[in-house]
Design brief:
- By secondary structure, this protein is mainly alpha-helical.
- It has 3 helices and no strands.
- The protein has one domain.
- It is rod-shaped.
- This is DUF6481 family protein.
- It comes from Sphingomonas telluris.
- InterPro entries: DUF6481.
Amino acid sequence: MASFKEPSFQDRVASASKAKQKALDQFRTRPPVDPALLATQRQAREMREMSLERERAAKAKEKAAAKAEKASIKAAELAAAEAAVALKAARLKPSTPEEMKAARDARYAARKARK
């Protein structure tokens, strides 16, 4: 049975040098980048970014419009509630003594009519 022989320092340096040279050769043999292709890719990326920005702006406008509509509905409901409270208060309290006498007479007449 043969024993495992550890590589010496020189062997490790040589294998590292070969690996480095192989990576360098692969890098050098790569085809050159076409500037026209880069320009079209850049233009496509910019178009995508612009469309995304338009979509974001449209969503923001929709969200703001929905928020404003919700606030206006809330304000209208609040105004209607305040008007109802004011109307109820006006009905409960006659403002002049003549109105008070008329209300009292109406209540008296209603009692008499029930009997």
